[in-house]
């Protein structure tokens, strides 16, 4: 992908819209231009799409599932024999969802009509970033955040306070990471269990409670009256008051 | 087959009963007849009276006139024997009757016949009066019994009755079994018919006509079933088609409305109006996909993506999603999972089950704008699990409650929209039941009862 490397950002991507409805093509075109994509082509059917695919070599395709002269799935398979171009499907039927979900098709994402412009641009940007600007470095770098006076570094799994530095155990780390990823939101006991033990909550209720207590002893100034790692009765736990550094 | 056994036992019992009743009736008729016959025998003049009316004076016997008429009427002839066995008087004596008798002769005819004439005798002061009837007009018999036997009558009459009853039951059983065997394929046929399976019974034998009727009905039922399926198919396809066609124009409405809503060049009031268009379009979108889902669920055309679904985790996750999604302070959601229901697992479509619970919570929130406390409970039964979603809000109106529990037209737009209909359909597709209740105080309660998968450690397939 020599061409990819010359790309400055995703807005340099050439995009192809394939939909048989001219009004919809126009609208999507407008949405994309407004968002900042300058090279947008559109095709009304498979034939046109194949031609533009060959001549323009787009970097991303927005593809309607049902086209007058064929099926979007078949068209994508055609594309895929020649390039790994990312495809965002537009579907007008709930039934398509089954095929899109169960797909060995390798569609990059799909969106069901009717959709809001914001949905479309968010999904498209995500697909394009994933394909052309994979953030390999960033993924290994984990967050560092503060809970009141305590600083937590998820890279080293360390908790630093004026009392000194403590290290999180593997399970405590897994729990805290999950809670931090969903900070401000309730994380059910089930999800925490999946994160730490890869198993259902059933049978782990007490284990989870014990680990949460130990975690509180490390991150809460007053473990018996938690301020940051809150229990949500009957549901799970919630991390609040985390300040990203 | 259970009902067939019942029919058979009833049949045997009633046949035995009928036999017994017949036996009793016969006995009574016989008794009545014997008594009646005895009465008939009582004539105007008994043999004794006739003997009395034959009087002797100076060696000449005269018979009273009325007695003579009586003899003419009832008998054919009469004679008087003296002590030596000689006939000393007679009336209408036929030629083949001897005029002299020895003691053995007399002994023999007194009980039976004299030259085939049925005869009756009575003691007369001068000898023995013999009255003869026409040949072949009477049948004479005598009954004789041991005294002991007569005394045991209380034992043997019931014994005979019981023996008869036993015989009747045995015979009825025998015939009943034959009937049972003949009916068995028919019963099986009717059962199959109820299961909507094609039925083709042999039409030979006693019940051939019946079998023919069942075959015919089965064929007709299957034809109707096909026609119904076809119509349901057509309806679902039609709804799917309409919902598909509506999506593209709706995309444009939603897309442009949303762009106008975000357009900084427009006046805030205009942008607000565009926002209304956008929000209403989103409502139409939900409605269309609900309608599509409801119609597919109704006609079993929604494919279920089956997997093992832990209900406790599902309920916690749905509740957490609502709270995380910014639930207003006026509402609260509490989840209570019974200890034994913690690991309840159903085989089902996770997304659809999630949708059912979500719809119920959303319904409670939507219809109680002043806020309410929502409670979600999970309880484990023997082979099922009850998920109870209740609130302390306004509850359902009686009419809606009636509609929800006894739906007449399933894909009908009620006040509550399709949300609750979809809940019922989803639970039904999972082999469960849905019950809507109003609570005695305020609020309502919806019970979703789902069959749970048996614990693999118990069934041993793990």
Count of separate DSSP helical elements of chain B: 13
Low-confidence runs of chain B: 457-462
So, CATH architecture of the largest domain in chain A? 3-Layer(aba) Sandwich
By CATH, the topology of the largest domain in chain A is Rossmann fold
Largest sheet of chain A: 5 strands, parallel
Strand line-up of the largest beta sheet of chain A: 2-1-3-6-7
Q: If you average the pLDDT of chain B, what whole number results?
A: 84
CATH architecture of the largest domain in chain B: 2-Layer Sandwich
Verbal overview:
The complex is a heterodimer of chains A (245) and B (462). In chain A, 43% of the residues lie in helices and 24% in strands. Chain A has 10 helices and 15 strands. A 5-stranded parallel beta sheet of chain A has the order 2-1-3-6-7, with helices on both faces. In chain A, helix 8 packs across helix 9 and helix 8 crosses helix 10. Chain A starts with a helix and ends with a strand. The mean pLDDT of chain A is 86. With 462 residues, chain B is of the alpha+beta class. Chain B has 4 domains: 2-42 and 145-181, no CATH class; 47-132, no CATH class; 209-298; 307-459, Histidine kinase-like ATPase, C-terminal domain (Heat Shock Protein 90, 2-Layer Sandwich). Chain B is 55% helix and 17% strand. In chain B, a hairpin with a 2-residue loop joins strand 6 and strand 7. In chain B, helix 1 (2-41) packs antiparallel against helix 6 (153-194) and helix 6 (153-194) packs across helix 7. Chain B is rod-shaped and about 165 Å long. The interface between A and B is large, with 38 and 38 residues.
